[in-house]
Design brief:
Tetracycline Repressor, domain 2; 2 domains; DNA-binding; homotetramer; mainly alpha; disordered N terminus
DNA sequence: CATGAATGAGAATTCATTCAT
DNA sequence: TATGAATGAATTCTCATTCAT
């Protein structure tokens, strides 16, 4: 959709070239994480960005913070996609449009999806996305393209399911997710049978978004 | 479902205590990978198994081989699940049963799903699983629970999609996948709309299973 | 002769401090290998050089490469010695001078002689040394200090024989080789009896220099 | 010459099969050290001997002790060679015969020569060898094949020098030492010029035999 | 006793992060 | 300020030695 890491203003206190560096790094990191996964070394990212590691660390105090920034950018793109979907006509098809846009973004960033849909950093943009998605879902409900028992949480689960497909197929069949999305959309139509289990509740969803990986107190190494 | 690493005979050439340790290690590794991901250190696995690293390395000459062994076990469990599903009555529901069993196994091994559905080691058991799944799908076709245009490849994609859900929810809502599976099953019923895109073809599937991550010719990081 | 690891320029692409460290490491490695043998741990070398292991590995990507670099330095010193010997007067004594210089260098590096006289890395400097030594030998032939049947290969064997003496005596009698060299020089004089066996031929010499230890096709230990 | 590890009686308190095992191990170790060097793992030696490591460790409490035993055997062979040389006619040629026999033994055991000519274990057989060699040297002196200024210590140095040649050539030219020995023998003839340096003195020789490698107090690891 | 499994200290190497230039 | 060199803890793996069967 939108070219990741655009010219979104980065706060006022950043000199022009500094901001340019920040952008270069972010873009390089986005590509590196997307292609090679989060395990890529910072050195390789810095190299790709055409800067030294020192510069990278000046902008992003830890690798973690860089990851978060990349995810933040990606979330912005998702937010843009959601906003764009709100303009789709007929309105009842906005949700489908959003799912497809989001899937395309996942393909582009296939290496860091593990972090896309969790919320360690509690990014405020998620609330905006949530609001948009709820609105899209409401329109679909009202327009009769999606059953009433399909909740907001189900949409999030759909995104996760798309992630599973994308992570396994994006390298060799970058469009394989399309059929899967069609399947999902068919599954939530009013004339499809309702599942026997209820959606996740809001607190479960929050928990899932919050601290995926590692059940409360465990873990050998750092994080 | 089945307790991973059961008393599957380990070939005759292993002393009793050695076999016991092998099992302990495999079980510990299964749990560690499941909970902490493949990045856990071998030391921590050995500790969990109550053995020294040396012992671990005596049984599994590299960490990679340990991972493969764990995946192999898991595949066996999946194979068992597929075989069990072939006994389900009515036969048309066997596929659904299999998907649910496989999902439960994925929850148990949530940390190493990335390796479960690829095929670096070209384990022959996969062929057996494939045969079973094709049979299950055939029964479902004939029994009218699944549309004829749903192919074997689609079932694999479903497993990947379940993986996506499991990886995001297993920690906090270990049953969240159930609703998703219901959704998927609803989506493939004869009365549900067919997707606008065709299933993956066999060669794409093979490629996806084979060398996930990293588009054909690329070095890991350095270059 | 020359203090190993001198101010030989290390190529321009190295910052001042980096070059200094490289030198420190090389010098420390030279001493460590010389005193303790090639088995010394890299950590101990790094410590001796006053740097961290990481620094060592930044300059030399493997321990092997460090060994090669040390040997390379040593070869340079040998090359210098050969060149210096070419200026000795009378010219017929140049070969003797060279043998003595080379012996002194061997004493200094007694721990890594095993690698000095083999040629895994196919260092081009060896050709230069060979040329010089052939010239020195020719002068000795013409000057009547060495018999005509003494070939270049014999000089190499002499160096190996000196190595044997040095490795056994350097720790307690660092000058013991002098008498041995005198003996050898006496043995090759025109008035000394010719040996009953011919010198090695060139291909044997090359093989000996190339892959010492381990007769062509064998694995290290296991098989 | 003699097949290493013969049926030398091993003290009375060893049951027949135990003694047989000891011999098998010793022979395997001799071959392994000879071919692969002292770095071979004990496991590989045990395997070669057709016994378990446990058995090996029952006979030889440490790897070091095994090495010493192998060297001890080798010394016995050297002793045998010296004794045999005492029967050579004319007596003045005994020393040359001994040097050649000893060289052949070194070729056979090229992997552990580093330990052959030192005397950590203070093996009494060395004294016997020394006595024989002194006698051989005396006969050579009297017979006029060796100059009077050539001392016992010089003969030891010759053995070391042969070692240097053997270690570098044995793999590819197992007879290359012959020419070198001829050279050495020529060098010590009465009509050859005397070296400008005196032989090692007895205490230096003892020191060299005693604790080669590692000047008094140093050394990161174990020994 | 023989066996080979278990042990764990130590070795080489990597990489996120800090710091001198 | 930008650079990339330095750092060292953590990781995988080996091997001499001990111990249960």
């Amino acid at each position: 959709m939108s070219p990741s890491v655009p010219d979104r203003p980065r706060g006022p206190g950043l000199r022009r070239d500094a901001a340019r560096n920040r952008t270069k790094i972010l873009r390089a990191a986005g590509r590196s994480f997307g292609e090679d996964g989060l395990e890529v070394g910072v050195e390789s990212i810095a190299h790709r960005a055409g800067v030294g590691v020192g510069t990278l660390y000046r902008r992003f105090p830890t690798k973690e913070s860089l990851i978060e920034a990349v995810v933040h950018e990606l979330l912005h793109d998702v937010g843009d996609a959601a906003r764009a979907a709100l303009t789709v006509e007929p309105a009842a098809d906005g949700l489908a449009a959003f799912l497809r846009s989001a899937a395309a973004l996942q393909v582009e960033h296939r290496g860091c999806l593990g972090r896309l849909w969790d919320d360690r950093a509690h990014d405020p943009i998620r609330q905006e996305i949530e609001a948009s998605v709820r609105e899209l879902l409401g329109r679909a409900h009202r327009g009769g393209t999606v059953r009433r028992d399909i909740a907001y949480e189900d949409v999030v689960v759909m995104l996760w399911s798309i992630r599973g497909v994308v992570e396994s197929t994006a390298w060799v069949a970058p469009d394989a997710w399309r059929r899967h999305v069609d399947l999902l959309l068919g599954a939530v139509r009013p004339d499809a049978p309702a599942p026997g289990y209820p959606p996740m509740d809001a607190s479960q969803l929050r928990a899932a978004l919050d601290a995926r990986r590692r059940p409360p107190g465990r873990g050998p190494a750092g994080a």
